[in-house]
Amino acid sequence: MEQNIHSVERMKRQRPIQELMTILDHEFKDISLLEAALTHSSLTKGRRQNKAQTDYERLEFLGDRVLGLAISDELFRRFDTADAGQLSRRYNAQVRRETLAEIAEEMGLDAFIRMADDLVANGGLENPAILEDVTEAVIAALYLDGGFSVARSFIKSRWWQRFEREDASQKDAKSALQEWLAKNGKILPVYTVVEETGPDHSPHFTVEVGAEGRAPSVGHGSSKRTAEQEAARKMLKDLQGD
């Protein structure tokens, strides 16, 4: 009974795929590519021999590379006086999970994703990792259906405006801490997850970072990466304040 309720709720929530094509500004010749990009493996497990039951996992692999090429090419051309380190920091800011999940949320992509009812009930549609994967899969679908120019046009519409943000070229805290320690002859920092609480769709991490001759610094966040970055910022602030 509960599963039937979830199925009805999902049918009410899920928007027609034609609406997504309008958002993407591309009319698919092979709509099965876009359908696969929106399908979570929870609906295809045990049925992979049926070509109609295709999920986004292979597409996500390809989309990650297409996005990487488009971003790298634009950064190389746009910031022609930046050194390799600056370009790398800008690149990492654009392809990290938080950025892709943010773009997915801006597009309302969650309303088109197809997944098992129990995963929907547990908050799967708000999971940043899933949003990241589906965004990359959609990029791959655009690439396969229309070529690199079509995929790049979509990427341009969603990413280019982010290149000039103040924090786009800033070194992340973990990298800055590692460089400071190396420069001062210290061993590399060690990160330890000391606590993980909350449900799968809304976890909370507590992370400690330890460095030679220092008391550990603690960070908190909704992802391991976020907590590590906060811990690194605190440690770096203490070190630079000495």
Structure description:
The chain is mainly alpha-helical and 242 residues long. The chain folds into 2 domains: 2-162, Ribonuclease iii, N-terminal Endonuclease Domain, Chain A, CATH 1.10.1520.10; 173-241, Double Stranded RNA Binding Domain. Helices cover 57% and strands 8% of the residues. The chain has a 3-stranded antiparallel sheet with strand order 1-2-3.
CATH architecture identity of the largest domain: Orthogonal Bundle
Gyration radius (Cα, Å) is 21 Å
CATH superfamily of the largest domain: Ribonuclease III domain
Q: Sketch the topology as an H/E string, one letter per element.
A: HHHHHHHHHHEEEH
Counting DSSP H or I runs of 4 or more residues, the number of helices is: 11
Low-confidence stretches: 1-12
The gross shape turns out to be: flat
Helix content: 55-70%
Would you state the CATH class of the largest domain?
Mainly Alpha
On the 0-100 scale, what is the average pLDDT?
A: 85
